[in-house]
Amino acid sequence: MTKNVIVTGGTRGIGKAISVGLKSAGYQVSANYAGNEEAAAKFENETGIPIFKWDVADFEACESAIQEIEGKQGPTDVLVNNAGVTRDIPFHKMSIDHWRTVMSVDLDSAFNMTRPIINGMRDRSYGRIVNISSINGQKGQFGQANYSAAKAGLIGFSRALAQETARKGITVNAIAPGYIGTDMVNALDDKIIDGIVAQIPVGRLGTPEEIADCVAFLASEQAGFITGSVLTVNGGQYIAA
Ligand code: CAA
């Protein structure tokens, strides 16, 4: 039977590649987006994947969107918590808004999305949850005290929830992408990007598809013995234990 997937932030960047990759692997995908209407409409036209607009930082909005999607497409088998934003600035200049925006979109969203879905997965004794963390949640990054904290939080969340759900056929894993060629990275100064690429042993930025392939693997039935893990995909930039 076709499995249903929700991908947050699923119409652009890494999320777009995840949505497209899972669709071509045979899943029925629903892609969330927050604000970029033009990109979302283009994505829907190009891919035929239905799009749903809501703010993943808002718990009630997540609850009602999940209800709407499940009403149309059936229960969620795979959840990909991918949505994320940056507000890079050294900590001594960081405002509470810089902090809260990143924590709520990048970390609270994992609670907001997973909590309404988890009991259905438990009842059906099956689920795959993939949380998109970051190299900067593993090593920390100058200018990203907020983002590094949120992305490290996703790793702790994955490891704890993995233990709680293992007996219920639900796996929970994190992927820690390095620097991938998306709008988020391309927004950095060219000089900064050159400096980053110089630190990547593979010698280039990653591609969104390289992350999507990892998601497809962790989402598959064959990956049932992998839970609580962090898959590091960074071209060798940071080799974590
Ligand atoms: N380590 C140590 N010192 C650093 C540094 C670093 N990585 N980066 C900057 N500095 C120093 C500078 O040399 C400078 O020192 P001086 O004042 O002595 O000259 C000082 O910090 C201020 O630097 P800037 O002029 O660059 O400061 P700024 O306030 O204009 O910008 C910044 C700071 C916004 C953090 C900018 O440096 C920046 O954008 N850095 C890149 C951050 C980054 O990698 N973000 C990742 C985005 S992509 C992503 O997040 C996806 C993912 O998951 C990987």
Give a summary of the structure in a few sentences.
With 241 residues, the protein is α/β, with parallel strands linked by helices. The chain has helices at 13-24, 37-47, 59-73, 96-124, 135-139, 145-165, 183-186, 190-198, 208-219; strands spanning 4-7, 28-33, 51-53, 78-81, 127-132, 170-177, 230-233.
Give keywords.
7-stranded parallel sheet, Rossmann fold, alpha/beta, binds acetoacetyl-coenzyme A, 241 residues
Q: Shape, please? A: globular
What profile does the largest beta sheet have?
Answer: 7 strands, parallel
Number of helices: 9
Structural class: alpha/beta
Provide mean pLDDT, rounded. 97
The value of Rg in angstroms is 17 Å
Strand order of the largest sheet: 3-2-1-4-5-6-7
Q: Which architecture name does CATH use? A: 3-Layer(aba) Sandwich
At CATH level 3, the topology is Rossmann fold
Order of helices and strands: EHEHEHEHEHHEHHHE
- Give the full name of the CATH homologous superfamily: NAD(P)-binding Rossmann-like Domain
**Bound compounds:** acetoacetyl-coenzyme A
Tell me the span between the first and last alpha carbons.
37 Å
According to DSSP, the number of beta strands is 7
Q: How much β-strand is present in the residues?
A: 5-15%
What is the percent of helical residues?
40-55%
